[in-house]
């Protein structure tokens, strides 16, 4: 068969062909709870961490997934494209970059993600504790646009190890596996690629 | 606060308001693999099993999720509605109804689900083994419209225990928990309902 290129190239092309749709940035992330049961929720795709294959999200430090990651650091993204019927299942390792981060590059990444966020999203990190009973109308803080990240603001990344790509229109399914990675610089990572039965 | 009604009523209303969109039947199901890592994939919502709250799907007996269910029978659905920004996270117990099913009601359910399926979907259950390396062009069997279910055809159900509903436009989140159930007849099941912080 003719190669389709890397999974990053195929994903880029799916994103491009769906960019007219508002909901294209939404995907689902599965994790495992402390009791061993699965969890699943919609997240907004915030692109890739520069120079790497890491998928980037934002999250609240108080959310359940932060607790879940301590027990099981693995996550699986399901990214489905509604018009082309393409699905990417991206399995990998989750990492949290929180207010206590000491690595200068990661600190800078968190800072940048904060200033890339909308005022509405930023204010949400000053909300009452997520998941606790609602006791009153929610008042979000009014933040100055120059104010840095609130403590609850975190960047969440998923470092892909395997990608299961399925094109339901063409009946084509390809499994990509990470074979080797020389460093955090994914320019040098090596992936295998195998077409399988859908 | 004014009650919004049961989660079934809210879901019904979301389905109704999105029925003009083809992709509205697509949701994501998270499970846990034998190695304890999460899995996630898109499935087509096939409604509820008559007279119950069980969410219904079809699946191939040879798919990975059938293997995963043996290790962990729990699943979590993430059902996101792209226009209203409503999300339903439905956590519950998975059950497979396969060709070896002996319960007469479940056998009849599987039969009905088969004849409700499109010819294209039916033929897919005669495909080469899913996930195995592709060795040749895929020839699907030509089935007579009166032919009963192929052996690989299964019905998969998820029996909800908890529903986490979030309306991102209104900033409203409600947790529904199954308190008691008298029988498989869900007409008598009792749910609690608690509004929580988003």
Written account of the structure:
Chains A, B: This is pyridoxal 5'-phosphate synthase. Chains A, B: Keywords: Flavoprotein, FMN, Oxidoreductase. The first copy, chain A, is an alpha+beta fold and 198 residues long. Chain A has one domain (7-127, 146-196): Electron Transport, Fmn-binding Protein, Chain A (Pnp Oxidase, Chain A), CATH 2.30.110. Chain A is built from four helices and eight strands, in the order αβββαββααβββ. In chain A, strands 1, 2, 3, 4, 5, 6, 7 and 8 form an eight-stranded antiparallel sheet that branches. In chain A, a hairpin with a 5-residue loop joins β1 (26-32) and β2 (38-44). Chain A is globular, with a radius of gyration of 18 Å. The two termini of chain A are 15 Å apart. The mean pLDDT of chain A is 95. At the A-B interface, β1, β2, β4, β5 and β8 of A face β1, β2, β4, β5 and β8 of B.
List the helices and strands and how they pair.
Two copies of one chain form a homodimer.
Chain A (H helix, E strand, L loop, with lengths): L6 H11 L8 E7 L5 E7 L10 E6 L3 H8 L2 E8 L4 E12 L6 H13 L2 H6 L28 E15 L4 E9 L9 E7 L2
Antiparallel strand pairs in A: 1-2, 1-4, 3-6, 4-5, 5-6, 6-7, 7-8
């Amino acid at each position: 068969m003719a190669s389709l290129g890397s999974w990053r190239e195929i994903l880029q092309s799916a994103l491009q062909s769906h960019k007219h749709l508002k909901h294209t940035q939404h995907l689902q992330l599965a994790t495992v709870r402390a009791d061993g049961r699965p969890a699943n929720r919609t997240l907004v795709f915030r692109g890739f961490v520069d120079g790497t294959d890491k998928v980037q999200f934002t999250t609240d430090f108080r959310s359940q997934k932060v607790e879940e990651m301590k027990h099981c650091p693995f996550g699986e993204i399901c990214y489905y494209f509604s018009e082309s019927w393409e699905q990417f299942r991206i399995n990998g390792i989750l990492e949290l970059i929180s207010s206590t981060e000491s690595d200068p590059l990661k600190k800078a990444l968190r800072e940048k993600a904060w200033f890339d966020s909308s005022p509405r999203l930023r204010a949400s990190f000053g909300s009452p504790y997520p998941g606790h009973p609602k006791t009153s109308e929610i008042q979000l803080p009014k933040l100055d646009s120059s104010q840095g990240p609130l403590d609850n603001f975190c960047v969440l990344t998923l470092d892909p190890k395997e990608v299961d790509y399925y094109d339901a229109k063409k009946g084509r399914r390809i499994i990509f596996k990470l074979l080797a990675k020389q460093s955090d610089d994914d320019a040098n990572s090596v992936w295998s690629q195998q077409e399988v039965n859908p």
